[in-house]
Amino acid sequence: MKYVEIVCARGCTDSVLALAEQLKLSDCRLGPVADEMQVLRLLVADDKLQPVLDGLQTRLAGHPASRITVLPVEIALPAAPPAEREQENAASAARETLYAEVEKNARLNTNYLVLVLLSTAVAAIGLLKDDVAVVIGAMVIAPLLGPNLAFGLGTALGDIALMRKAALTNLLGIGLVVMLAAGIGALRLFETSSAELLARTEVGLDSAVLALAAGAAAVLSLTTGLSSVLVGVMVAVALLPPAVVLGVMLGGGQWSLAAGAGLLLAVNLVCVNLACNVVFLLKGVFPRSWFEQQRARRATLIYALMWIVTLLVLMLLIYLRQTLLG
C-alpha cells in the first residue's frame, strides 16, 4: 500500500479525479494549497501503483510545476479483503521505485570506490587465510552486484544513459578489484594454496546454473520488494571473490589458475545479466510510452541473445580447458 500525493494546478484536478475513479481507488482526498495549486492524496494498492503513476505522468506532462510524491504506508484500516491483499502481494514494484533503488548503486563516486577497496581487502584476506566467514563478509558488501542490476534495468527500460553509467561503473570496479588483488599477489606474502582460493579457480556447468538462479533471485527480490532476500543473494552471486582470485593469481604469475578464475567471473557476470533480462521481461518492467516499449523490448531481446551466445562460448572454453587439463 502506498500514499500518493499530487500537487497540481486547479485545472488538472478533474483529470486526476477521473483517473482515481477509473482505477477504482479506495480513497481520494482533495484540498487547496498556496499559489493557486491543489493537493490530492490517494491511497493506492501496490498492484495499482504503476497504472496510477503512468496515468498521472501522462495527465500532468504539460504542467512542470506539478509534483508527485509516493510514501509508504505501514497499515491502513479497515484492511482490504483477502482477495485484494493477495493480488497486492503478487504485484511488482513500480518502475520508478526500481529505478530509484537501482540507479544509486550504479553511481561511480567516492562511496563506491571505498566499498570496492574495503571489500577487496576483506575478500583477499579471507581467501588467502582460508577463512570462510571473512569471505562471506566480503560477499555481503557486494559492490559489484549493483551496477549489473542497473545495467539489466537500463536494458529493460531502454535507458541508454543508465546502461552507460552502469557499464562504466562495473568495468572500473572490476578493474580496480583485479589490480588491487594483483598487487597483493605480487607481494607473495601468503601461500596461494588455500581451499577457498583454489575453489574460485574451478568452473563448470553448475557454476552457470548457480549464477542464473542467484541472478534471477536478485531481480525478484527487487521487483517484489523483498529486500531481506537480497543479502542471501549477494552471497550466492559472489562476483567479488573470483575477481580477487583472478588478480591474486595474475600477480603471482599462476596463469592457469588465473584463467579458471577469469572464466568463473565471466560466467557469473553473463548469467547475472541474462537473468536480469529474462526476469524483468517476464515481470513486465518496461517504459511508459508505446514507442519506448517497442525499443526497450527489442534491446532486451538483442542483449539476451548476446548473453546466451556469450555463455555458450564460455561453456565451450570451459570444456576445452577441462579437456586439456585432463
Automatic annotation (TrEMBL):
Transmembrane helix found in the keyword field: yes
Name the residues that span the membrane.
Answer: 112-128, 134-156, 168-190, 202-222, 229-251, 257-280, 301-320
Presence of the UniProt keyword Zinc in the record? no
Q: Which InterPro entries match?
A: DUF389
Q: Which UniProt keywords apply?
A: Membrane, Transmembrane, Transmembrane helix
> Organism's domain of life?
Bacteria
The UniProt entry, under Pfam families, shows: DUF389
PANTHER family, per this entry?
Answer: AT15442P-RELATED (PTHR20992:SF9)
Q: What name does this protein carry?
A: TIGR00341 family protein
What organism is recorded for this protein? Answer: uncultured bacterium UPO36
